[in-house]
Amino acid sequence: MTNSIRPNIRAMAGYVPGEQLNDPEIIKLNTNENPYPPSPRVFDAIRAALTSNSLRKYPQPLGDTFRKAAGRVLNVDPDAILIGNGSDDILTILTRAFVPEGGLIASPTPSYILYKSLAEIQGARFEAVRFGSTWAAPTGWPPRADLVFLPNPNSPSGTSLPSFAVHMLANALEPRPLVLDEAYSDFAEWNGRALLSDAPNLIITRTLSKSYALAGIRFGFAIARPEIVRELVKVKDSYNCDVLSLAAATAAIEDQEYFREVRAKIIVTRERMTTELSALGFDVTPSHANFLWCRRTDRPVKPVYEALKQRKILVRYMSYPAGPVGALEGPYDGLRISVGTDAEIDQLLASLRDIL
Ligand SMILES: Cc1ncc(COP(=O)(O)O)c(C=O)c1O
């Protein structure tokens, strides 16, 4: 029976998400969730949506109430917004819409590993383009890529390319699409929204999983020219976001005061972590996201990850192979540590002092 599965699916390893352990005692710093609760308005909105009438009926297919709210907050045309069941759903829709079987997807490396899995599912080729040194903009993009994914800020580095580099890349790829994956842009100094008017081929993806503390709700969206959104709507599931997630996402994006408060706390903790982890001997890359990329030259970091896990502190150990689809130089590894609450980070630092 499995022989009937398409060969490209059988050949692929499949994307492995970060560990999601249920133990409530675990300090979870491995998948860049927000350590603070969502806006109180989210709870009210979900409660209000829990009526038999709203559960009984299909949700808004295009999420018009969310699109109007997000359009107002972000100052974009609501018709320029496409809703998704997490931004991963948006990345899947984009792949299905733009990439033919045998086509080509490109993305920088090291970066979000899902892009390669999306190419494999689609039966497309994948080309990883190396970042320059100190995570500078990659050069040598394949001229004929059907789709380029550029995460900015990047994961695992947390680095952000300057606006002119993104603008130049978008213009160089035109008319082919550049997907600017802005899962972490709320923690950075700039985002690509202002580039949309000058780069018709730019598609921005956002998520409410990180800065809005709604990873469990699964909600993301894309911002692109309305004529592109109209085509993408044909590809998505008709009802890809449910009534509860739509209600939660709308309430979250409308509460900008709470959003700014949480973001500011996370950035302050991030800067403290940078100083203190550096003092512990880590080579910490300055971050524009809600996590830090920490390496060491004096000792392997995998045992540090394991020792932290034994102490119920979960961080993400990431390693990238050498070679053309691999890391900057040689096999490359490090710890990606999400920003937690100050109390969680105090415990992390105390454990690291013990372990090191
Ligand atoms: C770069 C990047 N893009 C997209 C996502 C997906 O986010 P979600 O599907 O939760 O919206 C993640 C999640 O970790 C990410 O790191």
Describe what this molecule looks like in 3D.
- It is built from 12 helices and 12 strands.
- By secondary structure, it is α/β, with parallel strands linked by helices.
- It folds into 2 domains: about 1-35 and about 255-355, Aspartate Aminotransferase, domain 1; about 40-255, Aspartate Aminotransferase, domain 2.
- A 7-stranded mixed β-sheet has the order 2-8-7-6-5-3-4, sandwiched between helices. Strands 1-11-12-10-9 form a 5-stranded mixed β-sheet.
- The longest helix is centred in the last third of the chain and has 24 residues, at about 255-280.
- The chain is globular.
- The mean pLDDT is about 95.
- Pyridoxal-5'-phosphate binds near residues 86, 87, 112, 207 and 220.
- Pyridoxal-5'-phosphate (PLP) binds next to helix 5.
Percent helix, as a range, is 25-40%
> What's the arrangement of strands in the largest beta sheet?
2-8-7-6-5-3-4
State the CATH class of the largest domain: Alpha Beta
Q: Largest sheet, if any?
A: 7 strands, mixed
Mean pLDDT: 94
Separation of the first and last Cα atoms: 51 Å
Number of domains: 2
Give unreliable regions as ranges: none
State the fourth-level CATH superfamily of the largest domain.
Type I PLP-dependent aspartate aminotransferase-like (Major domain)
Q: What's the count of strands? A: 12
Percent of sequence in beta strands: 15-25%
Number of helices: 12
Q: What overall form do the CA principal axes indicate?
A: globular
Return the string of H and E elements: HEHHHEHEHEEHEEEHHHEEHEEH
Q: Kindly provide the radius of gyration, computed on alpha-carbon positions and rounded to a whole number of angstroms.
A: 20 Å
Please name the CATH topology of the largest domain: Aspartate Aminotransferase, domain 2
CATH architecture identity of the largest domain: 3-Layer(aba) Sandwich
Structural class: alpha/beta
